[in-house]
């Protein structure tokens, strides 16, 4: 991790994101001098070295890719795009005043996740600086058994951060998982803790 990347690391550690070994240029962050101002990444150094147009013009924009679970391959992405617009769930890390563009959206390809080996590369070519593993991989019955491997592989192979989660966990799914052992057995709170701590009213709004 590059020198001075503390602000970025602090924000994403709250999401359970391990950025160890990933070079992050904080000089590219539009962070506030006010310690109380919680801000997200304006730009990350991706493996392609691409800079987005807004940064080149002196503004800020974060470009992201989203990988969803193959069992939900017919999903139109309604909850994910709504959450991005509302900056809810895992998207809460991005300040509302800064634009975020989705530059790639794909399924994992179905178990065991063959697309995960390839789609991040295409997303990065389109400028992706962060990749989100969709909330469906967390809340399914059972949750995706490869989710940790997906995160580790993408970060190691492509050198960009991976966030587990997109939209808030719908409350109806959360309540069922409270009665199951899946999350506990998988240590899901370690990688998706912020989703599990979401306000219950917000979760209910995403039922």
Task: Explain what this protein looks like in three dimensions.
This protein is α/β, with parallel strands linked by helices and 207 residues long. The protein has one domain. The chain has ten helices and four strands. β1, α3 (78-86) and β2 (100-107) form a beta-alpha-beta unit. The model is unreliable at 1-16 and 22-52 (pLDDT under 50).
Keywords:
single chain; 207 residues; alpha/beta; 10 helices; 4 strands; globular; disordered N terminus
Write the layout of secondary structure elements.
Blueprint: H1 6-13, H2 53-56, E1 62-68, H3 78-86, E2 100-107, H4 119-125, E3 130-133, H5 136-139, H6 147-158, E4 162-164, H7 171-178, H8 182-186, H9 188-196, H10 200-205
Parallel strand pairs: 1-2, 1-3, 3-4
């Amino acid at each position: 991790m590059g020198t001075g990347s503390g602000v970025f690391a602090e924000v994403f550690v709250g999401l359970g994101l391990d950025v160890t070994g990933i070079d992050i240029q904080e000089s590219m962050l539009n962070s506030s001098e006010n310690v109380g101002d919680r801000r997200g990444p304006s730009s990350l150094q991706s493996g392609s070295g691409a800079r987005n147009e807004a940064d080149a013009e002196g503004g800020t924009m974060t470009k992201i890719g989203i990988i969803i679970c193959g069992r939900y391959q017919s999903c139109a992405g309604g909850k994910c795009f709504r959450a991005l617009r509302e900056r809810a769930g895992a998207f809460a890390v991005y300040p509302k005043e800064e634009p975020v563009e989705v530059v790639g959206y794909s399924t994992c390809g179905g178990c065991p996740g063959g697309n995960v080996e390839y789609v991040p590369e295409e997303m990065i070519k389109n400028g992706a600086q962060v990749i989100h593993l969709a909330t469906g991989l967390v809340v399914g019955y059972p949750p995706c058994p490869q989710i940790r491997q997906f995160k580790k592989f993408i970060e190691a192979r492509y050198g960009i951060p991976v966030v587990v989660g997109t939209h808030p966990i719908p409350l109806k799914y959360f309540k069922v998982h409270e009665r199951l052992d899946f999350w506990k057995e998988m240590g899901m709170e370690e990688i998706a803790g912020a989703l599990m701590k979401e306000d219950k009213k917000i979760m209910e709004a995403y039922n």
